[in-house]
Design a protein that fits this description.
This protein is an alpha/beta fold. The chain has 18 helices and 16 strands. Helix content is about 50%, strand content about 15%.
Length: about 600
């Protein structure tokens, strides 16, 4: 019965299944007959998945955007890479949405579709696009007010290189800086995108002197671009170099660095000079955000009071193109002026390198390590390429994550502990006597030694006795040497005393001989006087002078005058005494 009942049950279920089958087949057929909905088109997009290193960037398939009202759909041929994207990746930019987000603020491409209320543009035209973000896609939707027609002679790479760099330099030089003929300018990172643009735009003004900082390997390039005085900031103090050339300083400083360099730039300004800050590149060091570097840069930043600016006649300004979103007319006017300069051949962007979307990490590394000269470009149409033989291979974008701070400190503490134990062992080993070391070496240090313990002790004892004997001999020799030194000192002192006595006797004898010689040679005074008189020559008497007065009529005055001329007997005697005196002086 049980078996029969089971068979009946199975048959009943089979019948139900047969009855249900015809109902299900029409439903499937009807579903297959309905037309399938077309799949939504997707485009390759570079997405920042989070703040951090290069591994936070990835190429993903995202839905293709559509042209809304007042927008233009553009197929991107080239997109620009800027230093601000590096800061966004590290979480240092306050104007960007939180990840995941699509980066990119400038691109060049072809118009594919026009939205409602768009005029002045046509499908198929080459255009340049500007946006706050989202340009790193194969296709982008951009407001028509942010789209500009490309000159025919301009390439897509040049179109993507111009907007941010040249607009930033244009507003800083001509609006804030008021650059005029005869002025001087300091451009930091002169080989970068903005530095390259600022140099070219400055040279559109007559007689402008440009100082530019860059590594030595880039000096030839920036000199060709218009820099008059290139300075290697890695080996020299650019402030001192500028003061040597221009003691009064410069008129305009473009500062993308921040921190201590802003203070130096302010000190370099001449009266009526201006410094325009447009970045904080000093905060970026390495692949990931460096909190110590950020803190140092902020700590060294300049704090200036309006009073100090008044006293020094200087100005400080700040600029960032991303904050001019509400001034589209101003931006369009400036950009049209830039495009006209390009058409006239006054400016031309330099393309450093072009990278595929999949190599965005390598492109960022190229800029982060300051290896670029000019603009770095991303291209959705370029295939990823391998570096040629001999070229430097960029670091892989996926790097091993650094250990946490706690783990690093723990490892450092354990390493310090091991080093401390090793130092203690060395100290203890130094404290051991040489005899203990010898005993340890002879007894167990060498497995080939077969001496017994007694033999080892005997050798050790002999070594100890030999060491003691050597010590005694050394002490005896030292004692003998001390005695000899003392005897030598005594002999020297005795000889010195004898020498002093002999010297005293010799001096006394010499003095006596000198006195005797003086007495013998020196005559007495009366004898000397007699000798002088004998030696004195005889003096003839002078003849008397007779005066005859021709006038017969003599007067008493005439007689008196005659008496004065020829005195009585006193005059000849006086002359004789004078002659004798002169003779005695000659004899002496």
């Amino acid at each position: 019965m049980a078996e029969g009942g089971d068979a009946a049950t199975v048959a009943h279920e089979a019948g139900n299944a047969v009855q249900e089958t015809p109902k299900a087949e029409p439903e499937k057929a009807a579903a297959a007959a309905e037309p399938a909905e077309p799949a939504e088109p997707t485009v390759r997009t570079i997405v920042l998945t989070g703040h951090g290193g290069y591994d936070k960037l990835s190429v993903q398939q995202k839905p293709q955007p559509k042209a809304g009202k007042g927008e233009v759909l553009v197929r991107v041929k080239a997109a620009g890479l800027n230093f601000s994207e590096l800061m966004v990746r590290q979480g240092l930019h306050d104007r960007m949405a939180k990840p995941p987000v699509v980066l990119g603020m400038e691109a060049a491409g072809v118009v594919e579709e026009l939205g409602e209320d768009v005029s002045g543009l046509e499908v198929g035209q080459n255009v340049i696009c500007l946006a706050q973000t989202g340009m790193w896609r194969e296709v982008v939707a951009v407001p028509a007010t942010n789209v500009f027609l490309m000159p025919e002679e301009m390439s897509y790479e040049e179109g993507a290189a111009i907007p941010l760099s040249y607009l930033t330099a244009y507003f800083m030089l001509f609006d804030f800086g008021n650059l005029r003929p005869g002025k001087s300018l300091l451009v930091h990172i002169a080989a970068g995108g903005v530095g390259w643009a600022a140099t070219q735009l400055a040279k559109t003004v007559d007689n402008v002197t440009v100082f530019g900082t860059a590594s030595a390997s880039k000096h030839d390039a920036i000199k060709e671009n218009g820099v008059d005085h290139p300075i290697d900031y890695r080996t020299r103090d650019y402030s001192e170099e500028i003061k040597n050339i221009s003691p009064k300083g410069v008129d305009v400083v473009l500062d993308p660095l921040g921190g201590a360099d802003t203070s130096k730039g302010l000190q370099l300004l001449r009266p009526m000079g201006k410094i325009i800050t447009y970045g904080s590149a000093n905060m970026v060091k390495g692949e990931n955000r460096n909190l110590m570097k950020m803190a140092k840069t902020l700590w060294q930043s300049t704090s200036v009071s309006p009073v100090s600016l008044v006293k020094t006649n200087k100005a400080i300004a700040g600029f960032q193109l991303a904050h001019l979103t509400g001034e589209i007319d101003l931006v369009r006017s400036a950009f049209q002026d830039i495009l006209n300069m390009y058409k006239d051949g006054k400016i031309k962007p330099r393309i450093d390198s072009v990278w595929a979307f999949e190599q965005v990490a390598e492109a960022m590394q190229q800029m982060n390590e300051r290896r670029n000269i000019g603009k770095v470009i991303l291209s959705p149409e370029k295939e990823p390429t391998k570096p040629a033989e001999g070229d430097a291979v960029p670091t892989s974008p996926i790097k091993k994550k650094k250990p946490s701070l706690f783990r690093r400190l723990s490892k450092r503490a354990s390493r310090s502990k091991d080093e401390g134990e090793k130092k203690d062992e060395v100290k203890n080993a130094k404290k051991e006597s040489p005899i203990k070391k010898l005993r340890a070496r002879l007894s167990g240090g060498d497995p080939t030694i077969e001496d017994s313990a007694k033999t080892v002790d005997g050798k050790v004892g002999e070594a100890e006795k030999a060491a003691e004997d050597s010590a005694k001999k050394i002490e005896d020799n030292v004692g003998e040497a001390k005695e000899k030194v003392e005897d030598a000192k005594k002999n020297v002192e005795e000889k010195l005393e004898e020498g002093k006595e002999k010297a005293g006797d010799l001096v006394q004898q010499a003095e006596e001989k000198v006195e005797e010689a003086v007495k013998e040679e020196a005559p007495t005074e009366p004898a000397a006087q007699e000798e002088k008189k004998e030696e004195a020559p005889a003096v003839e008497e002078p003849e008397k002078t007779q005066v005859t007065i021709e006038n017969p009529a003599e007067t008493d005055d005439a007689k008196a005058a005659a008496a004065d001329i020829v005195p009585a007997d006193d005059k000849p005697v006086e002359n004789e005494e004078k002659g004798a005196g002169d003779a005695s002086q000659e004899a002496e």
